[in-house]
Design goal:
Elements (H helix, E strand, L loop, with lengths): L12 E4 L10 H8 L3 H12 L5 H10 L7 H9 L6 H10 L3 E9 H11 L3 E11 L4 E8 L5 H15 L6 E5 L5 H6 L2 E5 L3 H6 L2 E3 L7 H5 L1
Parallel strand pairs: 1-2, 1-5, 2-3, 5-6, 6-7
Antiparallel strand pairs: 3-4
């Protein structure tokens, strides 16, 4: 594949998906396991990632299955997250080059914000989860706060962050694994499919078929 030719020293912006890209898990499935609904919710997640379901509607259906869970499960899941190999190396080397990196997720701020801070990500975007105290402590209500971070929101984040950071459109890179990443991958100067589902794999300009995130550096040159 041909990497967009850029003048030496041009800053790049890399925007990556989170679940099954930056990390090895699907967070919604891990939360569903605490609700005794992993198998049912994982099947919906798989169909959504393949582009067979409307993402926003499927997310709300999956989050509804979490109603009543103690909010403490969010911390439990955060502690169990496994970064895909090369994640820290990728962030460090991009920053050493003067580049920026952000993460957009159809998952949740309660997971991504602390993860982004620990990795030193420059930007993050994910969904809010409504939490209310029913008298026995804070619990998930089963509702998403605000608009869902879907494919269109991911594309808007890529464009907005590039503008904020002074990065040219042709110097943007977007990387993901599922149909929810398709629009930002198509909009970026370089779109990368990372161990991706068929819909995204067929549309991306470049592919990383092995679970090693810092392989992206070889594509960037």
């Amino acid at each position: 594949m041909a990497v967009p030719a850029l003048p030496e020293g041009t800053p790049r912006l890399v925007v990556t998906d989170v679940d099954s890209t930056l990390i090895g898990q699907e967070v919604i499935d891990e939360l569903a396991a605490r609700a005794g609904a992993r198998e049912r919710i994982a099947a919906i997640t798989e169909r959504a990632m393949r582009g067979e379901l409307d993402f926003a509607a499927s997310l709300r259906e999956r989050v509804a299955a979490l109603a009543g869970l103690s909010a403490s499960v969010l911390e439990e899941v955060r502690e169990d997250l496994v970064l895909n190999s090369g994640a820290r190396e990728l962030v460090a080397r991009l920053h050493a080059r003067g580049d920026r990196i952000g993460a957009v997720s159809g998952g949740f701020c309660a997971i991504l914000d602390p993860l982004g801070a620990s990795l030193g990500l420059d930007r993050t975007l994910a969904n809010g989860l409504e939490i209310a105290d029913d008298g026995s402590g804070p619990r998930l209500t089963g509702r998403v706060l605000g608009p869902v971070v879907d494919a269109a929101a991911k594309r808007r984040a890529l464009t907005a962050w590039a503008g904020e950071l002074g990065v040219a459109e042709e110097a943007t890179t977007a990387m993901g694994d599922g149909a929810n990443d398709l629009l930002m991958v198509e909009a970026a100067g370089l779109g990368v499919a990372y161990c991706a589902k068929p819909t995204l794999d067929a549309a991306a300009a470049a592919r990383i078929p092995v679970p090693r995130l810092d392989a992206l550096l070889a594509l960037l040159g």
